[in-house]
Amino acid sequence: MRDHAKNERLLLHYNGHGVPRPTANGEIWVFDKHHTQYIPLSVSDLKKWIGKPSIVVLDCSGAG
Hints:
The chain is an alpha+beta fold and 64 residues long. 19% of the residues lie in helices and 34% in strands.
């Protein structure tokens, strides 16, 4: 994502309603690249991937 946004602000809106609750390690669930099963994604990894500047909206029941 960051490659395309360059130095622009990136907005990521995660809609987690209807997916499993976050793991005990704080991972959120996303689809694999084939959109066939859920896989856990570390929020810290997500932060590294999207970089700065960014806005992240975690719209899910387990967002805390």
